[in-house]
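Encode chain A's predicted structure.
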Amino acid sequence: MYILQRVMNRLFVINKLGIFSFTFFIVIFSSIVMHRLEPKTFPRWFDALWYVMTTVTTVGYGDFYPVSVAGRIYAIFIFLVGIGIAGLAIGKLVEALGAHRKRREEGRLTFRGKNHFVIIGWSEKAKYAVSEIIETHPELEIVLIDQLAVTPMTHHNLHYVQGDPSMESTLNQANLKEAKSVLVFSDDSIQDSALADGKTLLIVTSVERLTPDIHSTVEIKKEEHIKNFRHAKVDEFVLSHETVSRMAVRSAFSKGITDIYTQLLSHKEGENLFEVRKKAEWKTYKDAFEGLLRQGATLIADGNDLAINQKLDERIRDDARLYIICSKNVYESLK
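Encoded structure for chain A:
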């Protein structure tokens, strides 16, 4: 009994691969032994395997059982050793699954996917952004980078990475080189706008240095800092304070304008803003405008150029990025 106790104590410190390998060996070896000891009781090798599996898992259907003395003696060995080993293996499996889930929740796993969307910095704004992406692009994988102890939100498409986003190791853990786009939110815990933008600039500089071709969108607190972010080759800017203030002022003078903004910014209600590619039959902006209008969509811009109505007779570039306002159903029909 002392020897058996020593063996079991050693098994508890053996790694998981060793436990599973030994359990597999015991099951296969015991199946072969039982088949050899009692060929009449277990005419097929699978019958012996079935008996061993129902025994070590303590199911015990009773449809097969040894009748010879040798078979029963070996069955005692399976009771004493096999059941304990199988229980230990199942326990290790449950422990491994729990450890994997804990590592995922704590953001300590490396993301291996491609063409994903990276969000840096958790806040209420980031929460709304994640919800919007899940709503509009349910197939898209999202990687969130922050320094929280555990993931602030759970979803099968959301993967959390814990760490300093200005560090290359953290960005590599998020597999930024294979990402489709990155969105950097400003740190709301920093009250000084200059310090908040300084931290954001440090992060986006690390991002652009590691992946210069990635499409980056950054939230900025002060408009005069845009020139610094342009130097860092940031693609898009969102002015948090100025945008909210301007919307508030316009709503004060133009009743109902905030409803228009809400519809354009959210895909959950009303008409929405979409991007479409140029079609072969669209030679000029007028062709595109009239063609889209017949299908229920309104052309409003080419890239950041909103003066479409002033250049209807001009030719459309092949690489034009046309933006339209329409319902989701109309957009789906245009794709």
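The radius of gyration is 31 Å.
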